[in-house]
Write a structure and sequence with these properties.
This protein has 274 residues and is of the alpha/beta class. The chain has 2 domains: 2-68 and 243-272, Alpha-Beta Complex (Quinone Oxidoreductase, Chain A, domain 1), CATH 3.90.180; 72-235, 3-Layer(aba) Sandwich (Rossmann fold), CATH 3.40.50. It contains 9 helices and 12 strands. Strands 7-6-5-8-9-10 form a 6-stranded parallel β-sheet, with helices on both faces. Strand 5 (87-91), helix 2 and strand 6 (111-116) form a beta-alpha-beta unit. The protein is globular, with a radius of gyration of 20 Å. It binds NADP nicotinamide-adenine-dinucleotide phosphate. Residues 47-49, 71, 92, 94-98, 116-118, 121, 160-161, 182-186, 215-217, 260-261, 263, 265, 269 line the site of NADP nicotinamide-adenine-dinucleotide phosphate.
Length: 274
């Protein structure tokens, strides 16, 4: 008999997820069947998608992954179709996906501009990861910053955050620009619909004949090995750097998840099971 621990979610999230939304319970695992195996967790991935509505009945099991999937490589290369010399903007740039996208853009010969939530994160992007420019979206005028740092306009935008940041970026895009809509974390906790409003995008989309495409990483599931090989090669060549924000202990998983919405992490947020 194997006794395991799991998180259950007591009620639908309202606004920011809170520790009181979760409870850890023990569960006796059923006996293994012939085609099953038991794996002991070493690391748990916490991800923004876990904020979504989990079901119609609460309490319910918390969802999650023990192995992180990689969204940046295919989402950026396949949807943005970047070309050398083009200017790429990444929002949520110091996070797991964003920091990866910006570096891939540099490897492919693009000029890269990132937006992140602290000055320290921006220094990491420019000093360590090779971004050409980065700014703290909390204290910069994004339109002015882009006019100064992307004087020829923006060709590709990898959007992790949505909202007003994205409206400003899209308004500065070039003819036939491409937007990969990966996520909209700025809206996930917003309970007041009034606050969800952002400047209307359609005039910019029409004027510049932009292509805006959402994606889920599972679309590229049959090419996972190709993505892993390419990323591994770049890591081994020293072209792709990564940072992990590791929190110890299964009991800290809810804190790690909540931290995603406060910008606590730089790079990929993980829980180490000790
Ligand atoms: N389409 C897919 O298949 C797919 C797969 C994975 C992830 N995603 C999406 O990709 C995005 C990034 O995911 P990730 O796993 O790489 O997470 P992450 O970027 O490592 O962590 C979330 C980051 O979002 C930023 N953030 C939080 N609230 C914000 C706000 N109101 N405005 C702007 N930024 C905010 C925080 O950094 P700051 O300090 O910069 O604010 C935080 O560190 C999310 O939107 C996620 O839903 C999509």
């Amino acid at each position: 008999m194997v006794l395991s621990k799991k998180y259950i979610v007591l009620r639908p999230f309202f606004g920011e997820p809170k520790n009181s939304d979760f409870k850890i319970v023990e569960e006796e695992l059923p006996d293994l069947q012939d085609d099953e195996f038991l794996a002991k967790a070493a690391y748990i991935s916490v991800d923004p998608y876990q904020r979504m509505k989990l079901g119609d009945k609460y309490p319910c099991d918390m969802i999650g992954g023990q192995i992180a999937k990689n969204s940046a490589y295919f989402g950026f290369t396949q949807i943005c179709q970047p070309k050398p010399g083009e200017t790429v903007v990444v929002s949520g740039a110091a996070g797991a996906v964003g920091s990866h996208v910006g570096q891939i853009a540099k490897i492919l010969g693009c000029r890269v501009i990132g937006f992140a939530g602290t000055d320290e994160k921006c220094k990491w992007l420019t000093n360590d990861l090779g971004f050409d420019a980065a700014a703290n979206y909390k204290n910069v005028n994004i339109a002015t910053f882009l006019r100064e740092n992307a004087p020829n306009g923006v060709d590709c935008y990898f959007d992790n955050v949505g909202g007003e940041i994205s409206s400003v970026v899209v308004s500065q895009m070039n003819l036939f620009g491409r937007v990969a809509t990966c996520g909209a974390i700025s809206s996930y906790n917003e309970t007041e619909s009034e606050k969800r409003k952002a400047t209307i995008l359609q005039p910019s989309i029409v004027r510049n004949q932009l292509k805006i495409e959402g994606f889920l990483v599972n679309r590229f599931a049959d090419r996972t090995t190709e993505g892993i090989k390419q990323n591994l090669q770049w890591v081994q060549e020293g072209k792709l750097k990564y940072r992990e924000h590791i929190i110890d202990g299964f009991e800290s998983t809810a804190d790690a998840f909540i931290g995603l919405f406060n910008g606590a992490n730089t790079g990929k947020s993980l829980v180490r099971i000790i």
